[in-house]
């Protein structure tokens, strides 16, 4: 049995009273106190997340762009140097291998941020499909650390640490800068639905960067947040989690991510299957819901439309934002016309709990 890996800042997190728990082969900070309060602090102020478990894969070479455009569903050529783009990585049958953020560092040099549990799978998938292209695929996951700073006050807190040029970056942009004696990539990407930055830096430089933030941490202006808050934040925002809303059996089209599947491209892996789904040959779709009850439907709970089994819950939790349980569910295609026309329920330990499908919580609150 493989032992769990530790983050570069593992001992630091323990010293901050983080509750550690296994996730994707790592010992990860789940919460530093109340995950509900960490969620609220992110929405109202700013929080710091250690996401160094995420993987980093580099793709470079003469054919890097044409290769990535073939293996990813989105139009990667639309991503200019200094920009980032979100795209699923799919199988021939349209099932999802992973969902990835790609950063274009130069015309033929890309950095890919992949999910921690999928690093080896993604790397092998890319290598297998890259054999026909003049490009190099290399795994640099062990070299990187990654910090996410998220929340409406993030830019104000980072004033004086980041340059005005960095602070002026708009959504899905990035810059590489020299600071703390090393090269750091600072991107306006995130997973919470809030403004903020994701910072990629050498693993050995993580503590140097966190030291810059200690005054804001000590004042309470900035707070650490763990995976539990991160999960509730992304669910409120309606962002998929690989293994839940996206799987080998749930395609981007089924997950409501058709905007990231560009059928105008000449060819890409999974195109025929995804086109068929867009044209109506789809087994079902992912929907978000809220519950007017205190009971929380969890992953695997059966979903009913009236008295018929219609699907199952993919993710479930409590939303501090709207003060009720929320979640996502996969609903079979035959029941799609009945959504919210008939009563919908989720089975919670033998109790049928009424659920209402609609926009994710963050969009409902605006």
Report on this structure.
Helices cover 22% and strands 34% of the residues. It is α+β, with helices and mostly antiparallel strands and 366 residues long. It has two domains: 1-237, Gyrase A, domain 2 (2-Layer Sandwich); 238-364, Elongation Factor Tu (Ef-tu), domain 3, CATH 2.40.30. It has a six-stranded mixed beta sheet. It has a six-stranded antiparallel beta barrel with strand order 15-18-17-16-19-20. The radius of gyration is 21 Å and the shape is globular. The termini are far apart.
Write a short abstract of this structure.
The chain has 366 residues and is an alpha+beta fold. It contains ten helices and 20 strands.
Structural class: alpha+beta
Helix fraction, binned, reads 10-25%
Mean pLDDT: 97
| Biggest sheet overview | 6 strands, mixed
The appropriate CATH architecture of the largest domain is 2-Layer Sandwich
Total count of strands? 20
Q: What is the terminal-to-terminal distance? A: 47 Å
Approximately how much beta-strand content do the residues carry? 25-35%
Number of domains: 2
CATH topology of the largest domain: Gyrase A, domain 2
Order of helices and strands: EHEEHEEHEEEHEEHHEEEHEHHEEEEEEH
Tally of helical runs: 10
How large is the radius of gyration? 21 Å
Gross geometry = globular
Give unreliable regions as ranges.
none
Instruction: Supply the CATH superfamily name of the largest domain.
Output: Probable tRNA modification gtpase trme, domain 1
The CATH class of the largest domain is identified as Alpha Beta
Q: Which strands sit side by side, in order, in the main sheet? A: 11-12-13-10-4-14
């Amino acid at each position: 049995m493989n032992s769990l890996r530790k983050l570069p800042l593992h001992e630091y997190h323990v010293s901050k009273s983080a509750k550690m728990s296994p996730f994707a082969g790592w010992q990860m900070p789940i919460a530093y106190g109340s995950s509900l309060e960490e969620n609220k602090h992110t929405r109202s102020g700013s929080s710091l997340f250690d996401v160094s478990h995420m993987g980093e894969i580099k793709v470079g070479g003469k054919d890097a762009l044409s290769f990535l455009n073939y293996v990813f569903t989105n139009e990667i050529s639309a991503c200019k140097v200094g920009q980032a783009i979100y795209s699923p990585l799919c199988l021939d049958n349209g099932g999802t291998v992973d969902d990835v953020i790609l950063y274009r560092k130069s015309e033929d040099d890309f950095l890919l941020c992949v999910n921690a549990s999928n690093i080896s799978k993604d790397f092998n998938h890319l290598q297998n499909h890259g054999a026909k292209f003049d490009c190099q695929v290399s795994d640099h996951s062990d070299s990187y650390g990654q910090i996410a700073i998220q929340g409406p006050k993030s830019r104000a807190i980072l004033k004086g640490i980041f340059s005005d040029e960095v602070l002026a970056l708009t959504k899905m942009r990035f810059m590489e800068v020299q600071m703390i004696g090393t090269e750091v990539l600072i991107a306006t990407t995130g997973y919470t639905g809030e403004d903020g930055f994701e910072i990629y830096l050498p693993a050995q430089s993580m503590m140097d960067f966190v030291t810059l933030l200690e005054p804001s941490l000590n004042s309470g202006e900035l707070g650490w947040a763990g995976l539990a808050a991160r999960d509730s934040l992304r669910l409120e925002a309606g962002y998929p989690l690989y293994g839940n809303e996206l799987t080998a059996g749930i395609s981007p089209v089924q997950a409501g991510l058709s905007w990231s599947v560009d059928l105008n491209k000449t060819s890409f892996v999974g195109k025929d299957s995804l086109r068929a789904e867009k044209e109506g040959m789809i087994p079902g779709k992912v929907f978000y819901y809220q519950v007017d009850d205190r009971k929380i439907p969890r992953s695997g709970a059966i979903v009913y439309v009236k008295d018929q089994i219609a699907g199952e819950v993919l993710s479930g939790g409590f939303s501090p934002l709207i003060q009720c349980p929320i979640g996502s569910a996969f609903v079979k295609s035959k029941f799609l016309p009945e959504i919210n026309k008939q009563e919908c329920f989720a089975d919670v330990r033998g109790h049928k709990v009424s659920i209402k499908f609609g926009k994710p919580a963050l969009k409902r609150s605006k």
